[in-house]
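The step that takes the researchers longest sounds almost clerical: writing a folded protein down as plain text. Below is the pair of lines this work produces for a single protein:

——
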Amino acid sequence: MKRRASFILAACVSILFILAAVAQRKHDPLTPEEINQLRDAMLEPDQRLKLYVTFVRDRMTKLEQMRADPKTTDRAHKTHDMLGDFLSVYDELNDNVDMYIGRKEDIRKPLKLVIEADIQFQSKLRALKDAANTDVAEAHQYEFILSNAIETVDSSADDHRTTVAEVQEYVKRKKKTKQ
């Protein structure tokens, strides 16, 4: 009888561990192909940041297409999830900008591209917020993540503009030390 109780207890504990592991599994917004492209461009800041901008734009385009499709069901939930993917990839872009700044890389060219994309993202996120005002019940399901996305892009856009000046300064100092 003790053996059976021990077996049942061990089985229950195992099931709990499995359920916990499954619950902790996170959704990766990047596809395996995108991950491979990023891995290949690890040592090339220009190419890597351009890839991130492309991936973030893709997420925004898919979000807009989904919202424009009249056949879409559960639009609010899908909007929430897609905004989450957008924000995750955008955060990765910012992490990479910070990484290259820390390494004192000359990322002026890709930063210009990032700043241009920031302006587009700000415009599109505000348009989404304006559209959400027409269907308040639906918008309630994604208003927090939308606000978070708007705040993140706004503050990051400011940071990116400031970063351009910082990069120009350390590139200038680097050239002076070489002379």
